[in-house]
Amino acid sequence: MIDHQVRVRPSADRLPREEQLAWKLAAVATGTQDAPGLDPDAAAMAVNRVIDNASVALAALRRRPVAVARAQALTHRATPGAALFGTAAETRVSPEWAAWANGTAVRELDFHDTFLAADYSHPGDNIPPLLAVAQHTGRGGADLLRAVVAAYEIHVALVKGICLHRHRIDHVAHLSAATACGIGALLRLDTATTYQAVQQAVHTTTATRQSRKGEISSWKAYAPAFAGKAAIEAADRAMRGEGSPSPIYEGEDGFLAWMLDGPDSAYTVSLPEPGEARRGILDTYTKEHSAEYQAQAVIDLARRLRERTGPLENVREIVLHTSHHTHHVIGSGSGDPQKYDPTASRETLDHSVPYIFAVALEDGAWHHERSYAPERARRPSTIALWQKISTVEAPEWTRRYHDPDPAHRAFGGRAVVTLADGTVIEDALAVADAHPAGARPFDRTGYTAKFHTLTEGIVAAADQERFLAAAGHLAELDTGGLDALFPAVDTDAVAAYDAQLPKGLF
Q1: How far is CA 180 from the centre of its chain?
Q2: What is the pLDDT of residues 452-489, one digit of tens each?
Q3: Which pTM value belongs to this model?
Q4: Where are the residues of the annotated region Disordered (predicted)?
Q5: Counting Cβ atoms within 10 Å, is residue 142 exposed (0-12), middle (13-18) or buried (19+)?
Q6: Each residue's pLDDT tens digit, 353-365
Q7: CA atoms within 13 A on the CB side of 339
């Protein structure tokens, strides 16, 4: 790996483009085709994530935000175009709108992959726009695999090197850069064109983190889809020979200077050397539970503690000692009263670790629909327990959250349960059971089981198997073969749900 130093530079320096971060990102992506073949482990993990994305997208087909995005996309038909989850096999829309609809479906349940480092991310959000562009431009499965591995490489590098959250910038700013790079790898664009696409994508997708604060709305699902759509539009514009704000990262009025650490900004972004295998995707991990990633280990911890606490009405207090991020983003350290509100939106409850811990402790399980149902959140016993749960930041857990060694990195915490008689019960869990270092790491069997579980009653058994067979041979699929990555569903039922929605402009 090569450590690239990135800092703000005055316009008078006339920083050569080859020394700019956007160029270096683009060079890694466009150099993917020159690497000595895809790393087999990275390629296999990319297939896992294609399966994972389809699982959660299909399970969300009749969620309102997904239906709205799909309805918007269906007004933008195109030839060749790209496919949509939940529509007839012959339906095709413009690729940027397919990225919008499919990206929203993938993100809606907060149930696909994650990577946490200096910042955090859901790198699987790169896949919908890349798949859409692959279909529209006649690329095959091998091209798509190359693009996915490249996008993950860039995404992981940016998340390791540049923290956005500290400045309340939404993490999709890194996503758009990664997707633009993935499109460059997919289409075998030159570095100069990909560089311009990266710059426009970053410029247009830098947004505040209010989308994940307070009363969280459906925009949480739309935000990454918007970034993917913007990256496709940026690539189209760059391919037509147009430039973009430059240098987008280092400029004195650019991203680092005014959105992040200011004129004295300095970061280190580590990228592969020419010819080095792209293995960044192997640093990422998926979810067993439909909730914010920092809640994954908390759910598993609650299930384990349930056997020791006895009747929950005897609980006086529960304090979860955890990392800075967990405490301030999804814990009581956020200062968001909505995190304790029984009438809060699903998106808000998804980002409330006190709520999640309470339900997991009561039920001994977590479900992507039942655990968020309004009647579940308003259950009196749940509300009573929920109000007794708080979080505190523990320096050791913050240190482990950022440990440079993946084997020691931890995203969980220590729960201290105090009962009415003064008895104290404690337990800790560093990582979720499904994490690569957890008790039951996800492998292909895990991804397949998740697909079967989430698509039961949505996709017929024979169509489930056809999808899994196609995904398992992704590298061998031609353009037409990519259609098999969109399993058949009851489109009449989906259309009937969509018809109930109010109309918009399109």
Answers
A1: 16
A2: 999 999 999 999 999 999 999 999 999 999 999 999 99
A3: 0.93
A4: 325-345
A5: middle
A6: 999 999 999 999 9
A7: 25
Query: Which residues lie closer than 8 Å to 260 by C-beta, 6 or more apart?
Result: 162, 163, 164, 166, 167, 169
**Closest to 62 measured CA to CA, from 449, 460, 499, 503:** 499
Tokens coding 31: 């150099």
Give dist(CA 345, CA 373) in Å, integer: 10
* The residue count for the chain: 506
How sure is the predictor about 108, in pLDDT bands with cuts at 50, 70 and 90? very high
Angle at 50 between CA 74 and CA 125, to 5 degrees: 65
User: Under a CB-based contact definition with an 8 Å cutoff, are residues 335 and 390 in contact?
Assistant: no
Q: What are the chain's domains?
A: 2-283 (1.10.4100.10), 293-429 (3.30.1330.120)
* CA 115 to chain CA centroid, nearest Å: 8
The pLDDT confidence band at residue 396, using thresholds 50, 70 and 90, is very high
User: Left if phi > 0, otherwise alpha if psi is -120 to 50, otherwise beta: which for 63?
Assistant: beta
Which of 310, 300, 302 shows the shortest CA–CA distance to 358?
A: 302
What are the pLDDT digits (tens) for 308-346? 999 999 999 999 999 999 999 999 999 999 999 999 999
Classify each residue of 477-494 as buried b or exposed e, where b means 16 or more C-beta atoms within 10 Å of its C-beta.
Answer: bebeebebbbbebeeeeb
Phi, psi of 116 (to 5 degrees): -120, 130
The answer to whether the CB of 193 falls within 8 A of the CB of 238 is yes
pLDDT band with cut points at 50, 70 and 90 for residue 293 = very high
